[in-house]
Write a structure and sequence with these properties.
Layout (H helix, E strand, L loop, with lengths): L9 H9 L5 E6 L12 H13 L2 E6 L2 E2 L9 H17 L5 E4 L2 E3 L4 H6 L12 E5 L9 H9 L3 E5 L5 H5 L5 H5 L3 E5 H4 L5 H13 L2 E5 L12 H12 L1 H17 L17
Parallel strand pairs: 1-2, 2-4, 3-5, 5-6, 6-7, 7-8, 8-9
Length: 275
């Protein structure tokens, strides 16, 4: 007989937890053991997952790095197997967290082919959204990549643009990407100043402009890169209002998880983005 939780949709499971606590879906997290620069061991992975659950995260999209320096590993089938194994460990250790497959995919000209060959992953393995990471060292205009992915029915979510050296100082460069249907994901730690003042200022610029659709932990460990969704939610609520905080921390992440349309963010006085 199935566990009651298994017969419910994601929305129903999360709704059932609402009465107990605030809930978050984390669309960008490095929680799988021994696959990238996240936890090295299963023990470290379980500790990170406990911290995510304690931070009121109920569902996590595991996004190990794909391509870039991880080109020869972390392929889709391997990640699916590791996610399944981690979920079994979470259940046996009574950690109330659900993990689904995804990837933090470095921009690469082979992405179309690799998606079709089922070697890289979309978020929640749902085929609707892909999390793309820009090269840190240089600026690349990815407009045509966004257009090409859209022609395959895949929308782009750009991870942590506020931490990119060029975009942090010239945020308007993202506007033509947004006009092509891309979305931006800001890191909780950037909102809180953990990556320095330049990234923090850029994070708040993207959020207050209404250009960012998501906030995620990008957690890697319990030291320098721990989960802090609750703290980010509080700060965004204070500065931009709880409605915006709910959209970027709760509602849009859930929509991405379920493959539904992303809501536009409209903070009071927001600068207009071309969509």
């Amino acid at each position: 007989m199935k566990n009651v939780d298994e017969s419910l949709t994601v929305a129903e499971r999360i709704s059932s937890k609402k009465s107990i606590r605030k809930h978050y879906v984390d669309i960008h997290c490095h929680c799988l053991p021994g696959v990238d620069d996240g936890p090295a061991t299963l023990s470290e992975s379980l500790s990170l997952c406990r911290a995510l659950a304690a931070d009121c995260v109920t569902d996590v999209i595991a996004t190990p790095h794909q391509l870039g320096r991880f080109s020869d590993c972390n392929e889709a089938a391997q990640i699916r197997e590791q996610v399944s194994a981690l979920n079994k460990q979470l259940e046996s250790n009574d950690i109330r967290l659900t993990v689904v497959p995804g990837g933090d995919v470095r921009v690469d000209e082979r992405i179309y082919h690799l998606l079709e060959a089922d070697r890289i992953l979309t978020l929640a393995d749902g085929g609707r959204y892909i999390l793309l990471e820009l090269p840190h060292e240089i600026f690349i205009d990815i407009e045509q990549l966004i257009v090409g992915l859209a022609s395959l029915g895949v929308q782009t979510i750009i991870s942590h643009p506020e931490r990119h050296s060029v975009l942090a100082k010239q945020p308007e460069k993202v506007l033509k990407w947004l006009a092509r249907g891309a979305h931006l994901q800001i890191t909780c730690g950037s909102v809180l100043g953990e990556f320095g003042p330049v990234s923090q200022n850029a994070a708040w610029y993207f959020l207050s402009s209404g250009w960012a659709s998501f906030v995620a932990t990008d957690a890697h460990n319990l030291d320098s890169r721990r989960p802090n969704m609750n703290a980010a939610f509080r700060h965004i609520s204070i500065k931009l209002g709880q409605a915006v905080a709910r959209q970027v921390c709760i509602e849009n992440p859930l929509r991405a998880l379920e493959g539904r349309d992303i809501q536009m963010i409209r903070p009071a006085g927001a600068r207009k983005a071309c969509r």
